[in-house]
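User: Predict structure, ligand J2J.
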Amino acid sequence: MTISYSRWPDDFAARYREKGYWLDLPLTDILTRHANSAATALIEGDRKYSYQQLERASTRLAAALQRRGLKCGDTALVQLGNVAEFYIVLFALLKLGVAPVNALFSHQRQELDAYASQIEPALLIADRQHALFATDDYLQPLRQRYPSLREVVLRNAREDDTSLAALIDEAQGEFVAAPSAADEVAFFQLSGGSTGTPKLIPRTHNDYYYSIRRSVEVCCFNEKTRYLCALPAAHNYPLSSPGAFGVFYGGGLVVLAGDPSANLCFPLIEKHQITATALVPPAVSLWLQAIQEWGSNRALGSLQLLQVGGARLSEALAARIPAEIGCRLQQVFGMAEGLVNYTQLTDDEWHIFSTQGTPMSPDDEVWVADEQGNPLPQGETGRLMTRGPYTFRGYYRSPEHNAQAFDANGFYCSGDLVSITPDGYICVQGREKDQINRGGEKIAAEEIENLLLRHEAILHVALVSMEDSLLGEKSCAFIVGKRPVRAVEIRRYLRELGVADYKLPDRIETVDELPLTPVGKVDKKRLRQQLAASQTN
Ligand code: J2J
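Assistant: Predicted complex:
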């Protein structure tokens, strides 16, 4: 059985194969190509895995899951933090042809429900250490709501649970890897989203493997690379740009950190002689602050490359990186939907500090459209439009949204406003999509607005971004209430609904009415201006 998704047209697929982008190899090849290597692949805390151990652990788990009836074409909902099991599980599922959604550890009931209802998982893998799974209050009804759910496997399991650790240790027995075909869905990536329900992005083996190999080439990762993964491991950026998958492909070492704080990361960098890592801009600010406080960057002596992406990096902050951290900066402008842009390691300072790089593939087609969808003259700012060998052709089961997100020629409109320099470098100028980028964490305004509208005291609501010196943006909810509502009440209400913490409005303003545009939509631009004015006062 295969999972249905929006395929690339045949002529494109043929071209991508001809050019060697699509190799018709499963993503499991990233690991199996090093199956006999004794080199260390992964370190998490005191735990250390060689490539051979990682390969065997994931095969044992795949075999154990197969014995429990999991098979190619099934889907899984997985929620694990930055722990070794994240990769063991991912490779095991790929070996079985089971396509997972890897939810972030910060996700709660709302997010997991939204993913589960879309994929109807046969398998759930989660962690008892997560608040949602500390009791069975969420698990029990979940099993009832999703009859498709046949197996629940838990990390930090209790006596009656099916234990992830036990399955990984189970004697392997007969097992022949049977991944899904390379041009079928390997797994689902999470969209930052701008709509009411979080959207899923089907990624095939072919397209994802190409994006990884090409990233490895651009970033010069190899067996000497020692990469610190301090962002959520499931996120597209630390997974594939080149991320942990890129490091595994190249035969290097991945060291996991639970979060990107300087307190945690600096000692890890020193201890493991880390050469490369990936951060979002707010983490860079905190690292620079820590260096100033500690009076030295000595712990970071081995670090050669710092990638920064996920949100806008100011030129001022960019320029401080080589000067104060003492390593090379690479800007990364990517998206879980596909397209990834990098500044080149050999670029001059202007390009590295002031642009978001160039599309990594020669066959990435990128152009800038006006509001009507017509091409704009070179250098002008407008909508980023793209298609290519690793950019998806449609969100999972979302025909209506896809009709808006793509043009007639299959170009995806990311909702970013960009300009392109004469030499082909992209500069992100802003955003058209109704999203808040909270230091790299994306919040779909509509999702939170819909939930708030269910509150008995709320008549109208608009969630907008407001500037923040550390995070870049925070969220503010403008509320028209039937009665006065307090911020604590709203936040508690959202928490009780089971919304991830980063999506809770940072500020709440109660107003008598919301300003409207001439066509009668809420004028969010005006609300943002009001906020900016109130912040400078
Ligand atoms: C401004 N905005 C940026 C940047 C992403 C590599 C790196 C990042 C992501 C990612 C990723 C930006 N400057 N440098 O998947 O593989 C904003 C844009 C974009 C959205 C995508 C990768 N880098 N952005 O951030 O799917 O608005 O992917 O459309 O989470 O983040 O978000 P996401």
